[in-house]
Amino acid sequence: MSSEQMRIVIVGGGAGGLGLATQLGHKLGKKGRAEIVLIDKNRTHIWKPLLHEVATGSLDADLDGVVYSAHAVKHGYQFQLGELNNVDLQTQEVFLAPIVNSQGEELLPSRKMHYDKLILAVGSVSNDFGTPGVQENCYFLDSHQQANRFHDALLDSFTRVHQSDELGALKIAIVGGGATGVELSAELYHVTALLKIYGLSKMTADKLSISLIEAGPRILPALPERIANSATRELIKLGVEVRQNTRISQATAQGFLTSEGELIDAHLKLWAAGVKAPEFIKQIDGLSLNRANQIVVKPTLQSLNNDAVYVIGDCCACEQPDGSFVPPRAQSAHQMAQCVEINILAELNQRPLNHYTYVDHGSLVNLSRYSTVGNLMGNLTKESMFVEGKIARFMYISLYRMHQKAIHGISKTLALWLAEKMMRVVRPRMKLH
User: Fold this and answer.
1) Which pLDDT score is estimated for 2?
2) What is the Cα–Cα distance from 50 to 59, expressed in whole angstroms?
3) Long-range contacts for 383-389 (Cβ within 8 Å, ≥24 apart)?
4) Intervals of the chain under pLDDT 50
5) Cα-to-chain-centroid distance, residue 32
6) pTM reported for the whole predicted model
7) Under the phi-then-psi rule, with left for phi > 0, alpha for psi from -120 to 50, and beta for the rest, what region is 74?
């Protein structure tokens, strides 16, 4: 890097961070106008809305993930493995935690890196709201490592039920009636139906008992009521016990204890209620945070207190003109990444910065192979159109293809689609190890 070259550091390779690194790599990195560095604590990227499929084995993260280091070489940016634990806004340095291997041996000590522009795209984690026992007794789906841990436990449970005549139904309780909880509930029934193909014929759908627990009056509270009602009907039809207006006061080894004192028995317990930005953000002096640890930004997506720092994705608190805040969705992260790309290029060319305006393109909830429901926003009329069935399923898959296009380009996205079609011939329909 020359002394005049700008260093742009992006922390977090999620939906927004990876897309932004890709585009800035093409427009600045490959042309030598700036050094683009992407930092992530994982070596591979999985689109977060698909983590419930990793958890059930419908998707193999080892085969379907994007390897950052290989992707970086092709797209003009650098990748560094590391976990952010602090930022010095005065000296413009990021501090990375030591890297240790699976045996706890230190591979790399703590490091620091200077930046000229910093983009924080560190996403979100589940919010347990301080509920006792949740951290000790529950699984989470914040990363593909957590999804893999749930998958291992799920396979063990399937095996126990299949090979024992004494065990009853496999009881799974999921707290949180948002998209993750709803989609996971349906996907669990789908993979259970596949088990007979692979020799686990005794682990049938009638031996699966799923409780979906929501504290509010209905599931999918962030989406229109018609979508929630349709999803509720489909889940009940599958066999899911949808428990609304049920608050959890404690998680135990046996299950979840409600505020009414009832114990909901569960062999596997998963927490998917609420999100917040990671705790380490509180350690960064000079940032304005809200109650969910999100970083408050200006309309340009720059930190409220420091113009050298941009924030995108779930960790960003961006107020809209109507007083509401941009929701933590993948489409928000993509749009924010596009806005920051434009603004960084504008800064380089000494042009005015754009304000970010959230455009809601609608929401889709995929109930595995059984159904898909959602709403699409009309860009001309601004009215919502309810969709379900095959059309909604096609639109849901298209969202993932659009994400692939943003990080790979059109030709490789088409190649990946063809490769997936061919691999279905030789690969099991679910991950069994």
Assistant:
1) 43
2) 8
3) 384/224, 386/224, 386/226, 386/227, 388/230
4) 1-3, 378-381
5) 32
6) 0.89
7) alpha
Please give the DSSP secondary-structure letter assigned to residue 352: P
- Cα angle 301, 180, 156; round to 5: 135
Q: What does each C-alpha distance from 141 to 73, 189, 242 come to in angstroms?
A: 29, 18, 20
Q: What is the CA radius of gyration of the chain?
A: 22
Q: Which residues of 2-20 are buried (b: 16+ CB within 10 A; e: fewer)?
A: eeeebbbbbbbbbbbbbbb
Vertex 129: Cα angle to 46 and 331 (nearest 5): 35
Whether the Cβ atoms of residue 252 and residue 137 lie closer than 8 Å to each other: yes
Phi, psi of 148 (to 5 degrees): -65, -35
Task: Work out the burial of residue 351: count CB atoms within 10 Å of its CB; fewer than 13 is exposed, 13-18 middle, 19 or more buried.
Answer: exposed
Q: Which two tokens mark 314?
A: 């779930």
For residue 89, what are its two tokens? 């806004």
Q: Are 310 and 340 in contact (CB under 8 A)?
A: yes
Could you tell me what percentage of the chain is helix, strand and coil, using 3-state DSSP and rounding each to the nearest 5? 35, 25, 40
Q: Is 88 left (phi over 0), alpha (psi -120 to 50) or beta?
A: beta
Question: Residue 28 has what DSSP assignment?
Answer: I
CA distances from 388 to 226, 279, 367 (A): 11, 38, 10
Task: Copy the structure tokens of residue 126.
Answer: 């589940």
Alpha carbons within 13 A on the beta-carbon side of 145: 5
Secondary structure (3-state) at 80 = strand
- Of residues 99, 121, 108, 85, the one with CA closest to residue 8: 121
pLDDT at 364: 75
The residue assigned the tokens 């000296």 is 91
